[in-house]
Write a structure and sequence with these properties.
The complex is a heterodimer.
Chain A lengths: L5 E2 L2 H6 L21 H13 L12 E2 L15 E6 L8 E7 L2 E7 L12 H10 L9 E2 L2 E2 L2 H18 L2 E6 L5 H12 L3 E6 L6 H11 L4 E4 L6 E5 L10 H11 L9 E6 L4 H5 L2 E4 L5 H14 L5 H12 L4 E5 L4 H13 L7 E7 L6 H12 L5 E5 L3 H4 L11 E6 L11 E4 L8 E6 L2 E5 L12 H9 L5 H17 L5 H11 L1 E3 L28 E6 L13 H5 L7 E2 L4 E3 L1 H7 L5 E7 L2 E9 L7 E5 L39 E3 L2 E3 L1 E13 L3 E2 L25 E3 H5 L26 E6 L8 H9 L7 H5 L8 E7 L6 E7 L18 E3 L5 E3 L9 H5 L6 E2 L27 E2 L5 H14 L11 H5 L5 E5 L6 H6 L4 E2 L11 E4 L1 E3 L12
Helix pairs in contact in A: 3-20, 5-14, 6-11, 9-10, 9-11
Chain B lengths: L1 H24 L21 H7 L4 H4 L2 H4 L8 H8 L6 H13 L10 H11 L6 E2 L12 H6 L4 H5 L16 H14 L18
The chains are: A alpha/beta, B mainly alpha.
Chain lengths: 986, 206
């Protein structure tokens, strides 16, 4: 019994075969009744007679135009506005698709110098945050809804009192890099005698900023240029998933690792748990969390002395030396001494100025943990008179965050009733970023505009308007942004046009680039004797590592159903957080996936289900942040209501458990790991919504051929193999077939190529597809039953041993097979083949036989077992009007965004021009930060997809079945292994 | 014997209903088909007057058909392009002039009652909720642009709207009717030019 080279779960690894689990293989209950067949048919025949063909007449519809049609507004035509995403502090540029006066889809702005057209899963999902019934619709004054005039007069009275009495006023926000907001914050706080603005990040990079004060004389976060790196050493930094600016970093990373390019970067990840970046690394060094500082120490020594006693450290140091000025060492540890060493290393290797930019530094993380700790201390001592919290949720995110309630007056500017707003005396109802004028400066010298695309749905205010109102000069935010740009940014751009023209162009482009605000150019200061990182002797027991998930980050979007339903890229679990354990540790503890464990650390207790995670260190237990938020109480009724439905929420009425109380401040820095953690098995079991074994493409045990041949679903190659003569593949003649040649493809022929080497598994494509195609949310129970509705899924395969496996991510969706096994078996021809190569699904014909899904070898067809769509007037404003909303009993699947294809073809006909390559972009392709998906016309020999289909790396999944899929995959490129470590290829 | 009588009665009844049905069968439609549907509108707008007598082109008001999937119905501001000046029909204006002359006074400005509804709605900033005549089910994505660009006249599908006092659905608008025209157009072309009117499902269903 030969072991599959790729396995998706530990169960599969142990049993060397995939469990036969598809949603359509459930055993059905036999219904035994008294009637026999003839009796039934007779009864049916008689009831035919009573059938009335009166039928349903359609209800009268109304067609309602505007009173005055706005200029350029045509119903049914989409308009795109450039704006800046406000879902996190990375500030990627977006294009907002607006239909009928409201935004329905977000895309990356292809010209934006931070995101280059990509948009992550969180950004794609943030459209749901706009159309949310649970947003605060009005400001709240002392527990009762009030009007803005009442709130303003109340606050002015209290602010004036504080001004007179010299009261202590503090403003607590997340990272603010918007020039206009900073200006108005300054103006507002200036009116008080003792007022300060404290910025913090729940996912803090404070140590890096503070370390640069010591090494470079300025508190900066360098801009990491992965596109210039040939050697990437990441220590506890998930830069592709959640660290600082993942879209930007992914773009740069993929640019440096192009198999057809002249250089190919080498990436080593040093960490204690399997992160998304770790899953892409050429080399993973697994260490206990407490040993990471020592690693940095050893690496620093090795770089200095060109020698090391540890083989792996020596290898990394050698590589870095071989790439002077083109290496990049990054570290996410919250320890200033460690970060100083990292800075010294980068300086010694000449990386500053090329892979680390300090003169145009990043502003995406500016939080100061030291100031935050100071504020919390002030609050605990009761010394704060007025505390304003805006765009942050300290009660949920911080250990000891409840101290904010001790302020004499707590004003919270928030979009919904989160934990911090619940403790406020005054809640200023905030507008969503899609409703607000604002700006952003994610990197020094790049000023990005934030345009609203809809009038505020409720009586909310943007942060700028709130500040200007409280300063006593209420003005609309548009005026404030324009004034700031006219005064500060316009002069720096030095254009040759007047301000109005400059402003119009800035709105159209979405950003401007200008000379950075002059200041001291950071330069390395003379080396001073630094204290070495304190190598604390590890306490007994486990080490707890707290990490953010790619979908939820710090938990600010916990209300978002799409993000909750997105399966984690590594563990493939959704709707929960859990305790990740190394397989060996789980076995020793006697827990399997879903068994509850208790984590105890310094008096704090967490009870979570365990998930064995291959590739994790034995002594590490990893728990995700961002769960257990009161914003998740709304998911009590998510999913269909039927007799066997089980709740999505846990017994506490929330999704997951809040792990933030386990965070701690250590020497003024927020640290994300604890040692001396006790782990014990509770004995309870919960069933997790884990998709890793859903829709397996491998052969079930009972059907395997005697030879034990395995299916090459994921294929990999090495750089040497690629660089061997010939990039083009040898075209083999297609295997013989019985099909008549009835698909001549005289016109377009749509096809797609997915580069598995570029794909990081981040899941942005999954959410983009959900947004574009009106895919419903089904809830945790339906996900347990393998009924998740995502048309696109990312299959995650491991290879090697569970101790340190290699990981492969493979996006899987309808392959639009030429000889589709689903088309032949539909009794009503609801699925058929189009003249252009698409396998089309006609929802109105489908009767729900589900034979097509049974036949699909890729298991990509999704069936609506229930009426998953909901009657929610506000949330349904986000629906795409160009795609049918499917009801119960209908099969659906990826359509290659046929609505976009149709729109583009008709527009081309209308304007009389030919369709060019790149005119049609599927939703998944458009959002991918790594540009791993390429869609196009195979009939056009010059299209990108034709070029990639001819690539040597291209293969088709399950090619041996001869279904002729229109989707090609490019093999993953693995690092060449040194001689003596040959890996077997299954 | 009883069963024989029952059989004869049933046969006669069945035969009678078949004969009656035969006449109706030609006019029977599937439920939901609204050929001939002509609902009352909030304002008795007459296409016969505007499109027929005045010869205003269809695309003057329904301009969206050129650039969007939906032809739409014009906003009240389009009506006001003319009706900020024209407040009543010519006949009514002449009648008022004659009356004024006979009463030796200046003619008063008069407003027809239907136009008064328009002015009231605009004053209240309330859009006019027209009754939709041509409505396809929500799983059909018909696109006017593709049909306009090959030169199909509006009347081909919408009938002689310029003769209709009140708009009615002239054509069948069933899927069979659409597909027949597509097949025909592929064979004979439109206006002398060859066309490719796709009969793929995903042309209209997605």
């Amino acid at each position: 019994m030969m072991r599959e080279k790729y396995w998706r779960s530990l169960e599969e690894w142990r049993e060397a075969s995939a469990p036969d689990r598809t949603e359509f293989a459930e055993p059905h209950v036999e219904i035994v009744s008294g009637a026999d067949r003839r009796g039934f048919l007779k009864a049916a025949g008689f009831s035919f007679g009573s059938m009335m063909l009166a039928g349903c007449s359609r209800t009268a519809q109304k067609i309602v135009p505007n009173v005055v049609q706005p200029e350029g507004f045509i119903p049914g035509r989409a308009v795109y506005y450039a704006s800046t995403c406000g879902a996190c502090s990375a500030a990627c540029g977006v294009l907002v698709k607006v239909r009928d006066g409201r935004p329905i889809k977000l895309e990356g702005n292809p010209d934006h110098p931070v995101s280059w057209g990509g948009l992550c899963a969180v950004g794609q999902a943030s459209i749901l945050g706009l159309y949310d019934r649970e947003r605060l619709a009005q400001p709240i004054l002392q527990g009762k809804t009030a009007s803005w005039t009442e709130v303003d007069s109340f606050l002015q009275a209290r602010f004036d009192e504080a001004r007179r009495a010299g009261g202590v006023v503090r403003l607590l926000t997340g990272t603010v890099h918007s020039p206009t907001e900073l200006e108005w914050i300054h103006r507002f706080l200036k009116t008080f005698r003792d007022a300060r603005h404290i910025e913090y990040d729940a996912l803090s990079s404070s140590a890096i900023l503070d370390a640069h004060t010591q090494t470079h004389g300025a508190r900066i976060l360098p801009r990491y240029r992965f596109d210039r790196a040939d050697v990437i050493v990441a220590i506890d930094a998930d830069f592709l998933g959640t660290w600082i600016s993942p879209v930007e970093f992914t773009h740069g990373y993929v640019a440096s690792r192009s198999p057809s390019g002249t250089r190919y970067a080498w990436h080593v990840q040093v960490e204690s748990r399997m992160s998304l970046s770790g899953s892409k690394a050429d080399r993973r060094i697994i260490l206990a969390q407490s040993d990471l500082a020592a690693f940095v120490n050893d690496l620093s020594d090795a770089i200095r002395t060109h020698n090391s006693s540890r083989a792996e450290v020596a290898e990394v140091a050698n590589r870095l030396h071989g790439a002077r000025g083109r290496g990049l060492v990054i570290c996410g540890l919250q320890d200033i001494a460690v970060q100083v060493l990292v800075n010294r290393m980068n300086e010694a290797l000449g990386n500053y100025g090329s892979t680390l930019e300090t003169d145009r530094a990043s502003r995406q993380r500016r939080g100061s943990d030291r100031e935050l700790a100071g504020l919390l201390a002030e609050l605990r001592d009761g010394r704060v008179d007025v505390l304003i919290v805006a765009g942050a949720n300290p009660v949920f995110e911080l250990p000891g965050g409840e101290a904010v309630a001790k302020a004499k007056l707590l004003v919270v500017h928030a979009e919904r009733m989160d934990e911090t707003a619940a403790k406020a005396h005054v809640i200023s109802a905030a507008s969503h970023w899609l409703e607000s004028w604002s700006d952003a400066e994610p990197v020094e010298g790049i000023a990005s505009v934030g345009q609203p695309c809809i009038r505020p749905l409720y009586q909310t205010r943007s942060w700028l308007e709130a500040l200007s109102a409280w300063t006593g000069h209420p003005k609309a935010a548009l005026g404030l942004v324009r004034d700031k740009w006219r005064q500060t940014i316009f002069p720096r751009v030095k254009p040759s046009v007047a301000f109005e023209q400059f402003w119009e162009k800035a709105l159209r482009d979405g950003f401007v680039q200008h000379e950075p605000i002059p200041g001291a150019r950071p330069a390395a200061v003379a080396m001073r004797e630094m204290e070495l990182p304190r190598t604390t002797s590890p306490r007994d027991g486990f080490e707890l590592v707290l990490y953010p998930k790619t979908a939820l980050l710090d938990g600010r979007h916990a209300y978002n159903a799409w993000l909750q339903e997105l399966a984690d890229p590594v563990t493939k679990v959704a709707w929960d957080n859990y305790a990740c354990l190394a397989p060996g540790a789980a076995a020793k503890l006697g827990v399997a996936a879903g068994d509850m464990v208790r984590i105890e650390c310094d008096g704090h207790i967490l009870e979570l289900p365990a998930v064995p995670q291959p590739g994790q260190h034995e002594r590490t237990v990893a728990v995700a942040l961002g769960y257990g938020s009161r914003l998740t109480a709304r998911f009590a009724n998510v999913g269909p209501e039927w007799i066997e439905a089980r709740p999505t929420l846990n017994p506490k009425g929330l999704v997951g458990e809040n792990a933030a109380p386990m965070l701690a401040f250590d020497r003024g820095l927020l640290v994300y790991s604890r040692s001396g953690v006790q782990l014990s098995k509770i004995g309870k079991h919960v069933e997790l919504a884990c998709t890793q074994e859903h829709h397996t493409l491998t052969v079930p045990e009972r059907l395997k051929p005697a030879s034990g041949a395995t299916r090459p679903i994921v294929q990999e190659t090495t750089l040497t193999q690629i660089r061997k003569a010939g990039e083009r593949r040898v075209t083999e003649p297609p295997p013989p077939e019985l099909w008549p040649p009835d698909h001549p493809y005289l016109g377009h022929r749509w096809a797609m190529v997915v580069d598995l080497n570029a794909c990081t598994g981040c899941g942005a494509c999954v959410i983009a597809c959900q947004a574009e195609n009106n895919i419903p949310v089904v809830g945790k129970d339906e996900m347990r039953r393998k009924r998740e509705m995502h048309w696109m899924r990312i299959d995650r395969y491991y290879s090697g041993t569970p101790d340190n496996p290699q990981v492969a991510h493979q996006p899987m969706f309808c392959q639009q097979c030429d000889h589709a096994p689903c088309e032949t078996v539909c009794p009503v021809l609801a699925t058929s083949h189009s003249d252009e190569g698409l396998n089309q699904q006609t929802y109105n014909r489908c009767v729900g036989t589900r034979y097509c899904a049974n036949n699909c070898p890729y298991k990509v067809r999704r069936f609506n077992w229930f009426e998953y769509s909901r009657e929610d007037r506000v949330a349904n404003l986000a629906l795409n009007p160009d795609v049918t909303v499917r009801s119960r009993g209908v099969m659906e699947k990826c359509t290659f965004c046929v609505q976009r294809i149709q729109e583009a073809k008709i527009e081309a006909k209308r304007t009389g021009r030919q369709l060019c390559d790149g005119d049609i972009q599927t939703a998944c392709q458009q959002t991918c930060p790594a540009k791993a998906i390429v869609f196009g016309d195979l009939s056009d020999p010059r299209s990108e997809v034709s070029r990639l289909m001819a690539s040597k790396r291209r293969y088709r999944v399950l090619e041996e079945l001869n279904v002729r899929p229109a989707v090609g995959y490019l093999q993953i490129v693995r690092a060449d292994v040194p001689d003596g470590e040959e890996k077997e290829h299954g | 014997m009883n069963s024989r009588i029952i059989t004869i009665v049933l046969a006669i009844g069945l035969g009678l209903s078949c004969v009656l049905l035969a006449f109706k069968l030609g006019q029977m439609h599937l439920p939901g088909n609204r050929q001939g549907y002509s609902p009352a509108q909030p304002i008795a707008y007459s296409h016969r007057l505007h499109a027929g007598e005045m010869q205003i082109p269809c695309l003057y008001c329904h301009f969206a058909a050129q650039t969007s999937r939906h032809a739409g119905v014009p906003a009240a501001s389009v009506c006001m392009n003319c009706h900020k000046e024209v407040t009543a029909s010519l006949g009514a204006l002449h009648a008022e002039e004659k009356l004024a002359a006979s009463e030796s006074r200046k003619p008063r400005p008069i407003t027809s009652p239907e136009l008064q509804k328009l002015y009231d709605a605009i004053q209240r900033n309330q859009p006019i909720a027209w009754a939709r005549v041509h409505a396809l089910p929500s799983f059909v994505y018909f696109d006017h642009r593709a049909h306009l660009v090959v030169g199909i006249a509006c009347q081909q599908c919408h009938g002689p709207v310029e003769t209709m006092e009140r708009v009615r659905q002239f054509s069948d608008l069933s899927m069979g009717w659409c597909v027949n025209c597509h097949r025909q157009a592929n064979r004979t072309g439109v206006g002398g030019a060859r066309v490719h009117a796709s009969t793929d499902c995903s042309t209209c269903h997605f």
